[in-house]
Each structure stands twice: as structure tokens, then as C-alpha cells.
Amino acid sequence: MLLNEFLLLGAALFCIGVYGVIARKNGVMVLMSIELILNSVNINLLAFSLRHGGDVTGQVFSLYVIAVAAAEVAVGLAVVLLIYRNRRSIALDEMSEMKG
Amino acid sequence: MLAVSYNIGQQVSFGILALMMLVAAVRVVTTKNVVHAALWLVIVLAGAAAQYIMLAAEFVAVTQVLVYIGAVMVLFLFGTMLTRSQIGKGADTDNKSRASAAIVALIMAGTLGYVLVNSFHAEQLPDVTPVSTERVADAIFGQYSLPFWALSIVLTAAAVGAIVLARRD
């Protein structure tokens, strides 16, 4: 296996996720795109872990990334729920109260 | 390039998985239906778990299935349900910056692809040797125990915070 196969797959997933974060309006869908980005990071970490002869550091940090992603989704969905309750809509481009 | 030995089985399974993941990822960010997007995301996450196994990280793959496909997807489906997102055809899920988002993503893909191909050319990964979960556990509770404790506090704070935010009173 080539190292670059995995790295390019990760890069492609990352770019698709970035597109989703910018282009999506629905708050839940933006969170899904963030999950794509975090998964591409994990593929990179594990590819480099194997490259360095099975060094477990990459695996440990990908586990930490998974845990942080779970925390992020829980808080993110609670925030989206709160926004929905207050405004009856989760369209992110309608929220401009904090615009200077 | 010519001297390297290719494992055909590995290559074929990588190709199938990668193609499946990319198609599903594109559908996640383009479909109009929130529930469909969540189900496409399941395919991407399952494909990623399979890639982790090909990278000799079984424990991470199992954790991915448990945490992402088990817990995070349920959260997403509940989030969709509770916010009554518009579901179905005609739902307005994209904002006006789609064109600029596509440009940003393409520039980023071009840059990343150029840099990766330039720096790693055709570097081979070593043959897959199983990494025992014992070694992962030793690293988590030994060398990297400080981030582990920090992460425990983050998770607790996030769980409590999510409950405080979401409860109704």
C-alpha cells in the first residue's frame, strides 16, 4: 500500500467537509460536515502511525479525536436545539444579531 | 515503482472502500434531505472504520463503530427529529455561498494534493503488523495519561453542558 493513497483519501474527505461547512444552511448538516473533517484527520493519524512501524501514538490520538468529536456533537446539537426553540428555525444564515 | 510488490487484495479493497466513501461523502454535503444525509454519513463512517482495520488499528475501528455509528448517529437523528428540520424535496438546505464554497474546496484539494504527491511520491507503507490493544492501553494510561484525564473532564463538562442547554425550564 502507498502512504499517499490514504493521505489523498483523507485530503479529499477534508475538502468535501469544508465545502459542506461553508455551503450548508441547516445547523445539523453543518455538524455532519464537521464529522467528515474529523474522520479525515483520523485516517491521516493512523496512516502515519503505520508508517512509523506501528507506533501507537497515532492510534492513541485518533481515539482522543473520536472522544472530542462525541463531546462536540453533544454540545453542538444542544446549541442547535436551543436556537430552534428560540427562533423556530435552524437556518444559520438568519442569525446575524452578533454582526458588528 | 517497479520493484515494489503490490498486494492486489489490499489494493482492490482499498479502491472499493475509498470510492464508496467519496461518493457517500459528496452525497452528505449535497443531498436535500437531512435524514438521507445522516444515512449517507453512516456509510462514510463505516468505510472509515474499514480503512482503520486496513491500517492495523482494530481497536480504533471498533471504537469508531461504537461511538460514531452507535451514539453519534442516534444523536443526529434525534437532533433532526427535535428541530423538525425541513425534510423532503424542495427543502432549502444550502445558503447562497455554494459557489464560493466550491471554489474554496477545489483550491484546498488542489493544494493538498500537490503538496502530498510532491512530498511522499510513491512511499510504501510497511507491511501491516497487528498492533496489540495492550500497547494502545499502555500508551493511554502511561505516556499519554495527562491528555486522557483532561479529556475525561472535557467529556463530563460537555455532557453536563448539553443537558443544561437542552432541558426545558
Written account of the structure:
The complex is a heterodimer of chains A (100) and B (169). With 100 residues, chain A is mainly alpha-helical. In chain A, 77% of the residues lie in helices and 0% in strands. Chain A has helices at 3-23, 27-51, 57-87. In chain A, helix 1 (3-23) runs antiparallel to helix 2 (27-51) and helix 2 (27-51) runs antiparallel to helix 3. The longest helix of chain A is centred in the last third of the chain and has 31 residues, at 57-87. By secondary structure, chain B is mostly helical. The radius of gyration of chain B is 20 Å and the shape is globular. The mean pLDDT of chain B is 88. In chain B, helix 1 (8-30) packs antiparallel against helix 2 (34-54). At the A-B interface, helix 1, helix 2 and helix 3 of A face helix 1, helix 2, helix 3, helix 4 and helix 5 of B.
Helix content of chain A: over 70%
Number of helical elements of chain B: 6
Mean pLDDT of chain A: 90
Radius of gyration of chain A: 17 Å
- List the secondary-structure elements of chain B in sequence, H or E: HHHHHH
Structural shape of chain A: elongated
Which terms summarize this structure?
heterodimer, A: 100 residues, mainly alpha, 3 helices, B: 169 residues, globular
SSE layout and pairings?
The complex is a heterodimer of chains A (100) and B (169).
Chain A: H1 3-23, H2 27-51, H3 57-87
Chain B: H1 8-30, H2 34-54, H3 58-82, H4 98-120, H5 133-141, H6 145-166
Helix pairs in contact in B: 1-2, 2-3
